[in-house]
């Protein structure tokens, strides 16, 4: 151990001689004291410096850590804000795409007639990859039969119908009551189908038709003519027998189905309620079953045959046999003929109305120039207005005395005017209906038709008339399908 250490560390100070002069004495006595204090001062200085260095180092470390932590927080905050900003932008973009649907769903709660919306039950299978839309409904008839699939013809061989006056029947006595003969290519239609006298039970045909409706016309909802649980049309066709088949085909094709409730003999409020319950119980769980805002929708053809008092028993919330606020509650769409029926529609507690008829000016409802005012009335009374659009009308093969109601197609211009009338409506309809896909008897079909010449040797006057056909020339057989698609896309911005 060195002497400095002993001298500083020892509790006993070393002794020194003091024989010098006074002047020397002062100096001599100061030197050892100064020496001793200087060494201690240096140690204190070193120690203090070390402590200051340590404190400064700790301070610098803390400051750097603080700055690093703050910078990290700032970066994280900025990143978070940017992420939120991008997310908000994405949400805004997504919401802008959904806003019309959301707003329209709110409007549907009020049963408004001015907006379009997706039904709440559109299934993923029918809406996801298939771009399902519910806005256009097309009337479809499943009453055709042929010998190959059904062992008999139905509807293609329809008889010529009588007029309600004897004098007119006398004028057409050479035609009235005669039956068309598909074997001779005499079909009860003024146009000849590209598929010939097909059967509505032929799955290949039906699937072709459904995919044609969906892919070529861009219509995803068919309105199936339905004649009751056990009843039949005037030709004896009970459509319920093949309805399960059509529902399966619609599911497979990605279409949805609305029932067009036809006026079978003896129809009344009680039988209508029975029909509604039957349809919902049997088909309501099918993914092809159409719903409007969660409720089934039914078109009621010739609804005016029943009085408002009778309809109220099942449609008024307080009706004695009401379907309202039950699992069978439905959207009921009546047929509108003219303004004289408005009270009937309102007092029947219906949810809206459609016009069906294809001949412009045949009824007030089918008169395009009246649609603006009719739509306004529907809007003011919280009713759905569903106009019906058609490519033309001719039923002279089965009603030769009805020429005054024939409406030529004008190479598609007649059809276009009806679409344009919808586009000009102030209160935009949620749905439109198209009359029709395949009502061949009345010449309203958009299903493809082809030119054909039939020569029947030794034919009489009926044979000559029965064998003559119109076609879509100079347009191609698919013309009315593609024209439907163009206008549906335009009207509903698809």
TrEMBL record:
Name recorded for this polypeptide: Uncharacterized protein FM155
InterPro entries: Glyco_Hydrolase_99
MF (Gene Ontology): alpha-mannosidase activity
Biased composition (Low complexity): 87-115
CDD domains reported for this sequence: GH99
Organism of provenance: Naegleria gruberi (Amoeba)
PANTHER family for the chain: ENDO-ALPHA-1,2-MANNOSIDASE (PTHR13572), RE57134P (PTHR13572:SF4)
Record lineage: Eukaryota, Discoba, Heterolobosea, Tetramitia, Eutetramitia
GO cellular component assignments: Golgi membrane
Keyword tags: Golgi apparatus, Hydrolase, Membrane, Signal-anchor, Transmembrane, Transmembrane helix
Region called Disordered, residue ranges: 82-126
Membrane topology (UniProt): Single-pass type II membrane protein
Source organism, top-level taxon: Eukaryota
Transmembrane segments: 41-59
Record family assignment: Belongs to the glycosyl hydrolase 99 family.
tRNA processing found in the keyword field: no
């Amino acid at each position: 151990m060195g002497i400095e250490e002993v001298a500083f560390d020892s509790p006993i100070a070393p002794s020194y001689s003091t024989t010098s002069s006074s002047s020397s004495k002062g100096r001599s006595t100061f030197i050892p004291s100064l020496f001793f204090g200087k060494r201690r001062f240096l140690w204190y200085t070193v120690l203090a410096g070390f402590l200051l260095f340590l404190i400064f180092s700790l301070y610098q470390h803390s400051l750097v850590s603080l700055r690093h932590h703050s910078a990290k927080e700032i970066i994280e905050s900025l990143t978070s804000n940017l992420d939120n900003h991008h997310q908000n932008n994405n949400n805004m973009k997504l919401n802008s795409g959904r806003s019309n649907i959301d707003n329209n769903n709110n409007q549907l709660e009020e049963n408004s007639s001015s907006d379009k919306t997706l039904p709440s039950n559109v299934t993923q299978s029918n809406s996801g990859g298939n771009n399902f839309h519910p806005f256009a409904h097309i009337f479809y008839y499943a009453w055709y039969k042929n010998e190959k699939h059904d062992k008999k013809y139905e509807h293609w061989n329809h008889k010529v119908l009588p007029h309600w006056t004897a004098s007119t029947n006398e004028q057409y006595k050479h035609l009235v009551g005669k039956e068309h003969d598909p074997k001779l290519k005499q079909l009860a239609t003024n146009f000849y189908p590209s598929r010939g006298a097909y059967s509505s039970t032929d799955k290949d045909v039906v699937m072709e038709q459904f995919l044609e409706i969906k892919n070529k016309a861009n219509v995803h909802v068919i309105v199936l003519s339905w004649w009751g649980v056990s009843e039949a049309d005037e030709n004896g066709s009970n459509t319920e027998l093949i309805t399960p088949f059509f529902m399966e085909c619609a599911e497979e094709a990605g279409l949805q189905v609305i029932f067009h409730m036809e006026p079978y003999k003896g129809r009344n409020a009680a039988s209508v309620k029975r029909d509604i319950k039957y349809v919902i119980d049997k088909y309501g769980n099918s993914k092809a079953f159409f719903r409007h805002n969660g409720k089934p929708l039914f078109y009621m053809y010739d609804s005016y045959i029943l009085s408002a008092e009778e309809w109220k028993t099942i449609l008024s919330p307080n009706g004695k046999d009401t379907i309202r606020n039950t699992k069978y509650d439905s959207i009921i769409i009546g047929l509108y003929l003219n303004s004289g029926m408005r009270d009937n529609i309102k007092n029947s507690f219906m949810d809206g109305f459609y016009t069906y008829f294809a001949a412009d000016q045949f009824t007030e409802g089918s008169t395009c120039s009246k649609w603006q005012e009719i739509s306004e009335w529907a809007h003011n009374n919280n009713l759905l207005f569903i106009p019906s659009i058609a490519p033309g009308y001719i039923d002279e093969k089965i009603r030769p005395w009805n020429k005054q109601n024939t409406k030529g197609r004008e190479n598609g211009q007649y059809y276009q005017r009806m679409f344009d009338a919808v586009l000009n409506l102030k209160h935009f309809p949620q749905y439109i209906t198209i009359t029709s896909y395949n009502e061949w008897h009345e010449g309203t079909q958009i299903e493809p038709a082809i030119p054909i010449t039939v020569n029947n040797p030794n034919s009489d006057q009926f044979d000559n008339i029965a064998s003559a056909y119109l076609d879509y020339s100079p347009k191609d057989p698919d013309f009315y399908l593609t024209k439907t698609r163009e206008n549906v896309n335009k009207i509903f911005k698809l």
